[in-house]
Write a structure and sequence with these properties.
The chain contains 3 helices and 5 strands, in the order βββαββαα. It is of the alpha+beta class. The strands form 2 sheets. The protein has a 3-stranded antiparallel β-sheet, with no helix packed on it.
Length: 137
Amino acid sequence: MEVHVEHLGAVQFEIKARQHTIACDQPEALGGFDEGMTPPELLLSALASCAAYYAVAYLKKKGLAAPGTRVSVSADKVQNPARMDNFKIALSVPIDLSEENRAGLEQAVHHCLIHNTLLHPPTIGLTIQESVPELSA
């Protein structure tokens, strides 16, 4: 998996993955134009959409109604170091669930790749490439 990000100006960035492009920006109060989600909002959306994917997959597997399934994710911004914490996933399904299906749905959502990545922090490497101007002959 790989994404590419390019600075467009101010605090705007273009994010590309495969053939898809999205914008990342900041609110006007932070020097942006508010034309895209902020990085923390993108992280929350990744967790929410992953949880939704696993929830819908479970509902379909069990032959239960899935259209209208909704997921909301919230988190607190905390300090020392600055980060997001206390993530909360709220899942709303369009049907009444048996206790068995409620437990199965919860288990399915806990298998989400993003959820597990946040529970088991990955290692993160960094390389810096500098552009050196070519010398004129």
